[in-house]
Design brief:
The protein is built from 7 helices and 7 strands. It has 272 residues and is α/β, with parallel strands linked by helices. The structure holds beta-D-glucopyranose. This is SDR family oxidoreductase.
Length: 272
């Protein structure tokens, strides 16, 4: 057991991390497993990558299983939840993380590019959150496991508030996630289900590799980050564990930006 296994804040909790096979999702899956959760690592196409994340977790003494589903497809999502409930009896934490970018200038953006990003990033979060909330309400409270009956964490972005030219499909999906999260939080609070978002800034993952693969591009990107470094998936993993834990029991309906200050309008630091 590594040292991080000594703080088991999510002990006996079953967690599903969508898009857990790479990037931020993999960072969250590993952090939750290290905090004692039994983690389902969802993937859509990358079975090998999901298996590698599961292996890393189990090699470190944690518990994880890979589960396939395209989160934008209702039948896939329902099959995934059925599998988890059959194997574990219930679920305590959903991390709605799957997300993609298909960038294009607005004038050139195809309906297909628009639809695909909305389907995965926004509809996918709706479908998974609905299944999770149904299970939380069916099962009811388990106070010996967690103060909340269930926890949903939506992976949003700084682009739920920062407009993004050349990425209107993506920025729209993240703006939509903000209202999806808040409206769910309002409706589900009486059931003691907490719903929150994490808004990552620039985290070093495959999704933004192109924006930082030359020293020049990396320098440009850093001008947007007052704290002066690009984030790592582990930066998000730690926050996700805390937000899912009882230490954050009074937090619902909030987006926690984890962005090194990207949402502080750094362009105004010496201008305006
Ligand atoms: C995007 C990344 C981008 C970051 C900051 C994220 O939501 O997926 O590509 O680097 O926001 O702009």
């Amino acid at each position: 057991m590594t040292e991080s296994f000594s703080v088991l804040r999510l002990r006996n909790q079953i967690a599903l991390v969508t898009g857990g096979s790479s990037g931020i999702g993999a960072g969250v899956a590993k952090a939750m497993a290290a905090a004692g959760a039994v983690v389902y690592v969802n993937y859509s196409h990358s079975a090998d990558e999901a298996a590698a994340v599961v292996k890393e977790i189990t090699d470190a003494g944690g518990q994880a299983t890979a589960v396939q589903a395209d989160v934008s497809k209702e039948a896939d999502v329902q099959r995934m939840f059925q599998q988890i409930l059959q194997e574990q009896g219930t679920l305590h934490i959903l991390v709605n993380n799957s997300g993609i970018q298909q960038d294009a200038k607005f004038l050139d953006m195809t309906l297909e590019q628009w639809q695909k990003v909305i389907d995965v990033n926004l509809t996918g979060q709706f479908l998974c959150a609905r299944e999770a909330a149904r299970e939380f309400v069916r099962r009811g409270p388990q106070p010996d496991i967690s103060a909340a009956t269930g926890k949903i964490i939506c992976m949003s972005s700084v682009h739920e508030v920062i407009p993004w030219a050349g990425h209107v499909n993506y920025a729209t999906s993240k703006g939509g996630i903000m209202q999806l999260m808040k409206s769910m939080a309002q409706e589900l609070a009486p059931h003691r289900i907490r719903v929150n978002s994490i808004g990552p800034g620039a985290i070093a993952t495959p999704i933004n590799e192109e924006a930082r693969d030359t020293p020049e591009e990396e320098k440009n990107l850093l001008t947007l980050i007052p704290y002066g470094r690009i984030g790592q998936p582990a930066d998000i993993g730690k926050v996700a564990v805390w937000l899912a834990s009882d230490e954050a029991d009074y937090i619902t309906g909030t987006t926690l930006f984890v962005d090194g200050g990207m949402t502080l309008y750094p362009g105004f630091a010496d201008n305006g």
